[in-house]
Design a protein that fits this description.
Helix content: over 70%
Order of helices and strands: HHHHHHHHHHHHHHHHHHHHHH
Strand content: under 5%
Structural class: mainly alpha
Number of strands: 0
Distance between the termini: 29 Å
Largest sheet: none
Radius of gyration: 21 Å
Oligomer: single chain
Length: 426
């Protein structure tokens, strides 16, 4: 394949990291927005994360099987088409202001993302010079971090109105006035998501027209392993304590990450009286920028310090930060919570890499099981939402604190590991 075609393929794959990072980090905007537009409790609004992350649990293995037959390019095209269709469904969902419709649209979007993420992480390491594989995946993942910073800023600008009715204001409205307000709130997602749908479809066309290299990544051991029944291979991997402890740790990490992001705007409003516009356009982007900076700084520190010891240290710091954020008040609580993102930055790739160590020919399937641990993002936010409804949002932030305790235990059990090759990011 020509050098120009290789560069085009690398550029398109890198754009996928930005696309799914952007979509994933719109959830913290959609949760407070749909809470208003559809008049939801905190628990009900948290189901936005459930509809999103459950796709990661259901789709990785089917996506991997699909790509085994039709190749990475076929998987990327299917993923982008699902993404585009799901984004387009936001238009009719807003027109009828039906929450179940919104959740269905999100599930379709994230089904596409599951395909994209299953394909892009390994593919970016396989295209081009093998010596540059680590640099390519780190470069591509930096666009994921960039998207995390941009998404809440753009979402806050084009989706959030900045107006939240007080109980007294809502009571003073007639039924017609309230309905008009709610319809206007719901309709603000229509144009942004139509634009997203069109952009993603255009990327789909570019991928379809771009020549991708033929990838032959399977060793003879992998070919022999994959001839065995899928159920038997999964049953064997489930017995691997290192892998399964990694799946559990990733479950709690992604669950904790989703909890932190999804309720940050509400936390800022309740604890420090920050408006939803300021929370989404200033403080949340700064927190995500800290996450991106933490990823780069953490990668640098891993040259001189054991990744596992960094994971232990960062977990302890985040436990302290969460406890502090729960007990402080005003801007001190918000700034303390924002610091958690910096120390959370290295956790997903480090846990992932420790989990699949020494799997050999079983690495691909083992990786899919670890990715399925992302379902924690579907389960933990509703738990946090329920606690918030029963008590308050500040106390509910103890839920991600539990996540960091579980990650600390995982890290302590891996202290004997001296070298870790970081192979994935989220």
């Amino acid at each position: 394949m020509s050098k120009n075609n290789t560069l085009a393929a690398v550029a398109l794959i890198t754009s996928l990291f930005f696309i799914w990072g952007f979509a994933l980090n719109l959830n913290p905007i959609l949760i407070p927005h749909l809470k208003k537009a559809c008049q939801l409790t905190d628990f009900q609004s948290s189901l936005i994360d459930s509809a999103s992350y459950v796709a990661y649990f259901l789709l990785p293995i089917p996506a991997a099987q699909f790509m085994k037959k039709y190749g990475y390019k076929g998987g990327i095209i299917i993923g982008l088409l699902l993404f585009s269709v799901g984004a387009l469904l936001f238009y009719p969902a807003a027109a009828v202001r039906n929450y179940a419709f919104f959740l269905s649209a999100l599930f379709v979007v994230f089904s596409g993302m599951a395909f994209l993420e299953t394909a892009a992480n390994p593919l970016i390491t396989l295209i081009g010079d093998p010596k540059g594989a680590t640099q390519r995946i780190n470069f591509s993942q930096s666009f994921n971090g960039l998207a995390a910073t941009v998404a809440p800023l753009m979402g806050g600008t084009f989706i959030l109105s900045g107006k939240t009715l007080t109980a007294a204001e809502e009571k003073g409205m007639s039924a017609a006035q309230l309905n008009e307000y709610l319809n206007k709130e719901a309709s603000s997602v229509q144009i942004p998501f139509v634009v997203i749908s069109i952009v993603v479809f255009l990327v789909t066309l570019m991928v379809w027209r771009t020549k991708f290299p033929v990838i032959n990544e399977e060793s003879s051991d992998e070919v022999l392993n994959e001839k065995r029944p899928l159920g038997a291979r999964i049953a064997e991997l489930v017995k691997n304590k290192q892998l399964m402890s990694g799946v559990v740790a990733e479950f709690f990490y992604v669950g904790g990450q989703a909890c932190l992001s999804s309720f940050f705007i509400r936390f800022s409003e309740k604890v420090a009286q920050i408006s939803e516009k300021d929370a989404s356009q200033i403080y949340l982007p700064l927190a995500f920028a800290g996450f991106m900076a933490g990823r780069f700084i953490g990668t640098f520190l891993m040259r001189y310090f054991s990744p596992v010891k960094l994971l232990v240290t960062y977990s302890i710091i985040n436990i302290i930060l969460i406890i502090s954020a729960v007990n402080l008040s005003g801007m001190a609580a918000v700034y303390t919570l924002m610091a958690v993102w910096f120390f959370m930055s290295i956790m997903f790739p480090t846990i992932f890499s420790l989990s699949i160590r020494d799997l050999g020919a079983k690495t691909k399937l083992g990786s899919s099981l670890v990715i399925m641990g992302i379902v924690g993002g579907a389960i933990m936010p509703p738990v946090m939402g329920r606690i918030s409804d029963m008590a308050n949002i500040q106390l509910a932030y103890l839920v991600p604190g539990i996540s960091f305790i579980m990650i600390l235990l995982f890290a302590i059990n891996n202290l004997r590991v001296k070298k870790v090759a970081i192979v994935a990011g989220h």
